[in-house]
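#onboarding

Welcome to the new folks! Below is a worked example of what a typical request in this channel looks like: someone posts a single protein sequence, and someone else replies with the predicted structure as tokens. Don't worry about understanding the tokens yet, we'll cover that in week two.

Example request:
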Amino acid sequence: MTNLFAERLLVICMLTNDCNQACKYCSESAGCGNAEMLPYEVVDQLLKDIYSISKESIISFIGGEATIWPGFYDILKAESFEKISLRSLYTNATAISGEHIDSIRDAGFFEVRVSLDSDRQEEHDASRGAGTFHKAVSNIGLMVENDIPVTAGTVLSKSNLNRLEGLIDYFKSLNLKMIHFFPLYMKGRGGSQKSLELSTEDREYIRRKLETNYPSCSAAREPLCESGTWYFKVLCNGDCIVQKDRDKRELGNLFEHRFSELYRKAEAMLNPAVISCKECKYYDNPILCENMHIYCMNDLNFMV
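Example response:
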């Protein structure tokens, strides 16, 4: 099969593995000290290199908790960031204050995905920390009021499996654009939650339930772009990889090489053909881009 790079270059950038929460099932084991983070200068140069490679590109900031990275609000105002055509943010929304809402709105994110796993304060706080539910829901409200496109990233486990309808009804009441459902991963601290892991039967139950009860807005995800394109991921220690599905190739470190150099290395390694994203049915709505949801199990799209 021919290797493919998308014309709309996708780079997922982990700004830091530090976090203001220490969720019991965090797959990255974030929020427990010994944090790593990218220097501001490295991120700024990364964005410049992305633009030099593709005038049509996506940058997605993740963590840890991206919004506590020291340079976060400064990079949103940088010329290098503003030149990137499409930008997204993954956040738990609890480190955001009212004074930050304008900055997030003005950043023009096409998606701000908020981690929200329950419609019950006590359940959410038991996993993520006291007060996190109220902060997340309050800040979701502020963002929605400011026309920021908020979606939910929701971890499903045996603890909330039988309350799908309640979860969905509550999330819809928050005026979210979408819900991205993820299974609890047995990675990082998630490995300590074995009793909550979804079985194959559980996943099939979820799929059937969503397809039956929400036929107009349910979408089962495959873990790659429909065209099978590779995407790039930059880790908070500077390591850069190129990935398709679960196939990962290490390219080098941004502390030692420019991203443009590592991109050329990936080209030499994979000898890809570049395809136009303009042919994709999600071209005008990148929030639905298959490659944006690599580990997603199912979506509910309330925008249809």
